[in-house]
Amino acid sequence: MYKIFFLLLINFNLFSQTFHKQENLYTASEVPKKMTLQVKKERFFALLVPAVEKAHKNLFQNYIRIKKEMKNGTNIEEIDKLKKRYRVKSDLELLYALKPHPQSLTLAQAAIESSWGTSRFFVKANNIFGMWSVNKHEKRIPARFKRNGVKTIWLRKFDSLEESVEAYYFLMGRAKAYKRFRKVCYETNNVHKMVKKLDKYSELGAEYGRRLSGVIRYNKLQKYDTYE
After folding, report:
1. Which pLDDT tens digits describe the chain residue by residue (228 residues)?
2. What is the secondary structure of 3-56 as a DSSP string?
3. Which domains does the chain have, with CATH numbers?
4. What is the DSSP letter of 67?
5. Structure pTM?
6. How far apart are alpha carbons 157 and 121 in whole angstroms?
């Protein structure tokens, strides 16, 4: 009996070690050479899904909490601070800002903006979405190209992929360019309606939304969406 238990314990430890090795198989700072498309996507999802899931869960729980406190008329001081942070005036606008859009859309944008986790700013700066920097006091790296061939463009540098995802959600919740996007996200869980309001995110305009829809459908990304 003790022998069987001992063997089971060894097998469990071996399984656990193998699992953790698989979990740490890829890093953002290293891109395997001569990757097939399958391996590229495997690496992308291994790196991004945990970061997006964690950020989305925390943001959604906070959104639900604030929504409940608004209804009960409690925690007014924090709510007022959040309104200032997100530059909104009404409770409803704050809820628009706080409700995180679906993970499928985040992953689709991450795939397009980072070339499936192989872009220079992804590898060198954990910058998934190519977010620019206008603050010389924050961590950042120069882009390879210059605006009008003269002015240096800076990209933000993050300490982790999770930090990059959090900064992205904050940008989407506060920037004026995505005001219509936030309203649609609050009113529906249909990602294919949401993407139509992201024409200002890219120079591609309306085509950007169509590409996002294509990435979501082809890669079946909606399996990552949860609606508590």
Report:
1. 444 433 433 343 443 344 344 456 899 989 988 889 999 999 999 999 999 999 999 999 999 999 999 999 999 999 999 999 999 999 999 999 999 999 999 999 999 999 999 999 999 999 999 999 988 889 999 887 776 666 888 999 999 999 999 999 999 999 999 999 999 999 999 999 999 999 999 989 999 999 999 999 999 999 999 765
2. HHHHHHHHHHHHHHHHHHHHHTS-BTTB--TT--HHHHHHHHHHHHHHHHHHHH
3. 43-119+158-224 (1.10.530)
4. H
5. 0.86
6. 8
